[in-house]
């Protein structure tokens, strides 16, 4: 694709990397944080109700400015990670933020020293404090795992030279990586894109070239991975977390048992979902068995005409509009105000995200647009996050964020709207079949593949407790867990054994991956409810309930949040129902083909 794609305009955060506004904000923060520490350190339990409410309000506004500076660092780095001057700005910002955050760590710890009973009656008595009740509730959940103030401070400050440094090194190696496919030199994102090319020879070449590039760096990736897992395990032990996944579950405010049930249910369905579909796909492609580089290949009758950026924009906005004009209006702002960076270039992070920044600014979306239906879905996905982040911003810095699991709900719902729109506008039965197959593949990638990733991480974090893992040992777990998820339908060549190294979530955010499966299953149920209500003429009621859920940000836990829809994820058969939707799509395709 040669069209010009939009780049984001970060001036709503700061005018430029050398702007005096950054220094001014830093100075202001230094002074205000110093004053905050002077006013409250060692004093929090002695504050009266009004004093506590005021302290939290001050704490929130400090977090907002800190978040603004750190978001700016993250965003400039994500598009220019190979430019030394930018890397320096990014690193300086990271160091500043960690230093200042460390000075503030005492506050939450001292708030948690107030007893639950005292806090409850204080919240009832005081309106300004009761506003923060959901934040106080979430902060309290961490209490059993908190360390002394000095230790917490040390951990925050040392994170810059431990966890964050390893992630930075991982990013640096990955973003600089050049993959030689034939006589072309490609970035990781461009290489991954070749896996959805119609030419089987190109896909195969991409697979071997990527495997070679990753193998060249395997020793470094292995060292980084081992260190990150060990670093996490040390901290988990100090804090008293029982299992490697437990700290993630706590951050997601979800019970261990619910995640266990989700993972077990999906794992039980590997063969009826993934294996069954890929056998079908092999048949459609006239093959006995698929090679792993055929997994995301287009179907043989795919015309493969690229979708221009403007067209992608129109499709997503129209599909949003049909569900909710308010959602479409917010989504449109992302285009008109240059909040999206869609270009593909060296030094830019592969993949996509919607960064919320801070409520006083607005989110920014990053993606690598390459004109495929899948890219249109990615745009719909990230705009789902973006709209959610805009709607929840009024909750303020401390309560706008939703736990990861529910954050993926808004994005997957956005994708579902765009999928249904495309389906109803499909020009031919063949086009419709391709769309359904594409949707099945996306769902297998979000549900089955992510749980196979989760199983891989679970095995590794467990094994790492017995000592450093060799590249072979890691690859063995990788091949085993991935083969389980594909069954007999996909041949995993030896070259596949290093492919775990490019899954950045394993390095950045251990155990993040199950959130995708969680979101997908949940959205299937939500969408089924929407269709039912629409049939009964209550589409507007559903829209209102849905937007209200997004507006509430992090105020509610999943139980209260989903109650208006009659959903209870603690029920054992809930996940099975979510998977049923995927199964039905596979049935439909099967009938069409056999
Ligand atoms: Zn997402």
Q: What descriptors fit this protein?
A:
three-stranded mixed β-sheet, two-stranded antiparallel sheet, 7 strands, 66% helix, 25 helices, binds zinc ion, mainly alpha, 594 residues
Quick overview of this protein structure:
This protein is mainly alpha-helical and 594 residues long.
- Count of individual beta strands: 7
Strand order of the largest sheet: 4-6-5
Name the beta content range: under 5%
Q: Structural class of the helices, strands and pairings?
A: mainly alpha
Give the overall pLDDT as a whole number: 93
Count of helical stretches? 25
Radius of gyration, CA atoms, in whole angstroms: 24 Å
User: Separation of termini?
Assistant: 36 Å
List cofactors, ions and other ligands: zinc ion
What is the helix content? 55-70%
Characterize the overall form.
globular
Report low-confidence residues grouped into runs of 5 or more.
none
List the helices and strands and how they pair.
Blueprint: H1 20-40, H2 49-79, H3 84-111, H4 116-125, H5 127-131, H6 133-141, H7 149-158, H8 163-176, E1 179-181, E2 184-186, H9 188-194, H10 200-216, H11 218-239, H12 246-251, H13 256-268, H14 270-284, E3 290-291, H15 309-323, H16 325-336, E4 340-341, E5 353-355, E6 364-366, H17 373-392, H18 404-424, H19 429-464, H20 471-486, E7 490-491, H21 504-508, H22 514-535, H23 539-551, H24 558-562, H25 574-593
Parallel strand pairs: 3-7, 4-6
Antiparallel strand pairs: 1-2, 5-6
Helix pairs in contact: 1-2, 1-3, 2-3, 3-7, 8-11, 9-10, 14-19, 14-25, 15-16, 15-17, 15-18, 16-17, 17-18, 18-19, 18-22, 19-20, 19-22, 19-25, 22-23, 22-25
Zinc ion binds at residues 381, 385, 408, 411.
